[in-house]
Amino acid sequence: ALSDRTPAMADQSVSEMRQRFLTEHQASADFDSRDVDRVRSDDAYLMRFIRHRKGNVNNAYETLVKCLKWRKTFCVNDLSEATIDRRYFEMGIGYVHSEDKKGNPLLILNIRLHKKNAQTLPEFKRYVVYCLEKQARAMPVGQMTVLFDMTDTALSNMDLDFMKFFIDCFKHYFPNMLELLLVFNMPWILQAAWKIIRSWLSEDARQLVKFVNKAELLGIVDSDKLLVKFGGTDTWEYQYPQQEDVTEATGTSKRVCYFITLYLLRNHLNITCICEEL
Question: How far apart are alpha carbons 195 and 211 in whole angstroms?
């Protein structure tokens, strides 16, 4: 069992994966050089694949290769708010807020805000991958809980193509990241669709999917960390840009204005003594 492996054995597995990958693929055009650098230096990242495949190094290696090829094709390392349709951020379809009782971050997806549309699906996938990648980078170890808010959803919101992609993300591309997938307040009309989705999951993965109501959610997330709409007491509301982003941007703007003003005073007005910080 993976839990029985000593740190030395884990280190050996990581070294084995790293050496094999660099020997076989270091110069390959199939991979983003930034991901190759990550394989070269990031033990925790490689360990995610090993844990995901329950200690089977060969299976973990195959998943790593598949994942990194996809990352280059999908241009994951180049995703940013600037390269994704801003409307997804403004609507707040998905965001990370608070944590469950185990300390896992909560990724909340408001499914009613997504409409099945073949034309917009590629951009929505990019948005979701950006959210997952941002969280994965923020937590080199540990997992996350995903909360699907199905409130007020209808058949037009149930996008099986997206759901297949979302499952594949955790199955192949963001290994050992998912603690639980909570499906909240699902309308009865969508139960048949979820039976199809469950058929795509392995037995282990099915154990991670929980259909919950408000009372059941409180058994997973503390009341003060659960939003009011889910039955908790947290009154936080999503806004874009996030407050911390606004604060950071404001601070940056002030610093830029200060140095521009300082430059003008010194070089164009011949004032060399600045006694008071702007």
Answer: 12
Containing 97, the helix (H) or strand (E) segment is strand 94-99
Long-range CB contact pairs, 262-270, < 8 A, 24+: none
CB-CB contact of 25 with 31 (8 Å)? yes
DSSP 234: B
Per the prediction, the chain carries an average pLDDT of 88
The vertex-203 CA angle with 127 and 159, nearest 5°, equals 35
pTM of the entire structure? 0.84
For residue 149, the SS3 value is strand
Of 45, 133, 117, 33, nearest to 83 by C-alpha is 133
Cβ atoms of 228 and 234 closer than 8 Å: yes
Q: Which distant-in-sequence residues (6+ apart) come within 8 Å of 196 by Cβ?
A: 160
pLDDT, tens digit (0-9, with 9 covering 90-100), for 117-162: 999 999 999 999 999 999 999 998 999 999 999 999 999 999 999 9
- In angstroms, rounded to a whole number, what is the distance separating the alpha carbons of residues 5 and 144? 24
The set of residues, in sequence order, having a beta carbon less than 8 Å from that of 137 and lying 6+ positions away, is none
